[in-house]
User: Fold this.
Amino acid sequence: MSVLPYETLPKEADSVGILFRGADRDGPAPEMPYIGTRIDQVWADNIAELVEKAKRRQWNASVDIPWAAGRGVPPVLEEALADVLTWMLQLEYAAWYVPAKFIPRIHPAYTEVGLFLSTQVMDEARHVEVFLKRLYLNGVGLRTASSTTESSVKGLVFQDDFARASFLLHVLGEGTFKDLFHLLIEIAPDEATREIMVRSLEDEARHVAYGVGRLRRQLSAAGDPDRVGETFVEALESRLSFTYEVSGIPLHVQDALAVLAGGGREGPALDRGRRRIREFTDELNRNRLRRLLEAGFSPKLAGQIAELHIRSAGGLM
Ligand SMILES: [Fe+2]
Ligand SMILES: [Fe+2]
Assistant:
């Protein structure tokens, strides 16, 4: 059996009890501090399918990556890769902690959401593991961490509204990461790294699919999608540093990406790399707008959110 019964799926659940939907009780259920108690806050129509896909496509960071193929990368490229991975790791931690914190806060009437977030917790733990293993493979290890990035990540981790956190993480943050994985497949300096990016991209695509599916449901349930949408603009404005982080990509990371894309740190190689990264940041902006429209934002509001990103990105690029 791949699907749980839907007949009892409630539009709203009382914030009581610790059991799947549809149970009879022999007495009053205990009150619980749930925050996800409405279907339009947590559900996505593709949720059951995403859970099945996630289970089928789990992989193992120790044995599924051709680690030997990651040896012997020229130091310039190895260091540039380490700069990129150190930054990405900081965001991977956020992607790991955020779903973990919300699992016990979502009413078990929506157990499928908890199942999905649990697969995400495992996926992100694996991303952290595989990035660390790649960082230490050739002895370079972690590069200097950006404290700005750490503060941005903290802003997301302490976002207590699930819908807002999901919008920031699944739609915006992981949307950017999905594009970044595509780029890294293209510019990876070795086959071990390429395989890491191919596999991580597939995981990331599920996380974005949940976020966009959840948002679409929330916006379509609201009589006036733009009114609900406005609350996301507020979330972005109150978490501007996170907005900056995932839209602009910090300058030192862009520099490292350019080294990887061009294949060197100077001359025509670097010029070529820089051109590629400029194109990439345009792709990021286009894809962000497309995702917002796909989720059901009006062109006006989608444009406003995208504009906020580009404006904020200007501060960092
Ligand atoms: Fe991830
Ligand atoms: Fe993710």
Residues 191-221 form the longest helix (31 residues). Residues 92, 95, 124, 127, 204 surround fe (ii) ion (ligand 1) (CB under 6 Å).
